[in-house]
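Running this now, will post back.
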Amino acid sequence: MRKKIFAALLTAVLVAGCSSENDEPEARQTPSPTPDTTETVTTDTTDTPQVTPAPAFEAKYCVARLSINTDGGAAVNSKEKADYRPCTIKIEADTTAWNYEGRGRIRGRGNSTWEWYPKKPYRLKLDEKASVLGLDEDKDWVLLANYRDPTHLMNTLVFIMGEALGMPFTNHSRYVELTLNGEYMGLYLLTEQVEQGKKRVDIDKHEGWLLSLDVDDGPAEAPGAVDNFWSEVYRMPVCVKCPEAEDYASPNTLTDDARTELAALENAIASSDYDKLAQLCDVATMIDYLLIQEFVYNVEVAAPRSIFLFRDKGEHARWTFGPLWDFDAGFDFDWAHMTTGHNFFSDYRETVLGTDPARHISDYSYTPSFFTDMWRSRQFVSEVKNHWKTIRPRILSEFWPEAKRYAEAASEAMERNASRWPIGKDAKTEINRMEKWLSSRAVYMDHIVNGYPMK
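Update: finished.
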């Protein structure tokens, strides 16, 4: 009889981890940043087994199971819009209310991540808008492969920082294990597509602006596209994400008008005119955005790549930096072995904006001055210093522990992913290295920010 009781209790423990029997995704007890996941069974003097439950994670941390089957088993081997594959999508979550099944389409996405690595990222478009894993309903979703990120946390940490700092329209992280046409594809980060929309970048689709500063989408790499141009002042590669040509009042002038609108902001930055900048731009968000880029040493700023700006319609609407996007080239990524090394965290003493940004004293001296000329403004530098003081104490006390909860809930999935896509890195080891790097980087950033010259 005692064996039956013991077996029943042990079974209950093993299924408890990320599960919920409720119909609504209620918050559950959040563990400490480094919970002990060991299950302990003891027997008292009456032979009644006592079980210490495994830690339970809130629904958002848990890894869901995502199955996608294309019609006829068609291969997903292109990222072109014309090559979307119709498919059936099924999500099984540990929170019943988050289960989903429906029809949609899938294609590849990304640039270097699509071209260089065997584990591919994907773009999903549902036939009908739906809430996915508790996120606001929409049709468009992204599956980030995180192939070269051995921690699976780089984008997640930055999303956590952006949301906690109140940066508008910051993406969220949901982890899934993907099975595509019956083949296990590993652990993916499911998140929102950066685009105009009521539940995304909520600007007017006809008169708002969402711009991407990105060399891959710009005139040099995508010549002849109707939605890209070189910026007027800093000659940066720009792609217009919103409005789309068919939504704009005069499609033939779309890029010319976008260039003119952006040039006003560029001129304010080029002149280091703080008052003018404050009229045209959300300065506080701009500073948070740039401090995050520097803190994680995101060298994509120098290209630039994956830099977004948006502005809604209206006479008093201001440009806002964001949403934050694409950070697996940060954290001291080893570009010398970019396709095979997957090396990060070697040196925390490098800069992309610089120790003296206005004079380009930096490891990336060619970073566009669009991101650095405001350091000639004494008031701007003063605000940078003040913003850092509010961010600094939260990094290791709040942002990083939150990121680690995702890692703890996904630890077994990370092991399965490593078996499917071995890159010679152990996730737990790399997460520990990331923590040490972040700690050292925060101290170094104190030195950098305190040393910014007050012109």
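DSSP finds nine helices and 14 strands in the chain. More later if anyone needs it.
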